[in-house]
Amino acid sequence: MTAAIPEAVAQRAATRYTVSPGGCHISTYSVVPTTGYAQIGWRDSELGKVQVTGAHRAAWTHTHGPIPAGLTIDHLCREKRCVNVAHLRLLSRAENARRHSHDFPLGQCANGHPLSSYSASARRPYCRACKRDSNARARSSAVTAESLRSWYREAAAS
């Protein structure tokens, strides 16, 4: 469990930036080389160690309060160093990952079906409507393939 972000740290994250031509507030804090996110840290006297969090998370906390459990911050602008809260929104972790890996519209699969048609019980969630369409295409092509095999057998026998 991570410690709560102190207000002074959150305020620093929200106010130390440069403005890009696109309106992003680019954090002046260091960037995590592996992820590209700006980070901010502080010494937690209760835990007796240094805590680090994303600058965008701290900026959100400064403006909107703590991030609810199960949710994460999404950059609408796709700039990982941006701390402009107008460019940030809360999303579930699954929706955020889905959006960033495929850029689907929020609340829809790639084919426009609502997420309510998603099977969450599966090991790997899938859209039931897309799966139904895929199965129908597979059945149709299987029937066609069987028809062709049958025709070839009859042609070879004659």
Protein described:
- By secondary structure, this protein is an alpha+beta fold.
- Helices cover 37% and strands 20% of the residues.
- The protein folds into two domains: 1-103, Alpha-Beta Complex (Homing Intron 3 (I-Ppo) Encoded Endonuclease, Chain A); 108-158.
- The strands form four sheets. Strands 1-2 form a two-stranded antiparallel sheet. The chain has a two-stranded antiparallel ribbon with strand order 3-4. A two-stranded antiparallel ribbon has the order 5-6.
- A hairpin with a 4-residue loop joins strand 3 (39-44) and strand 4.
- The chain is elongated and about 90 Å long.
Quickly describe the structure.
The protein is of the alpha+beta class.
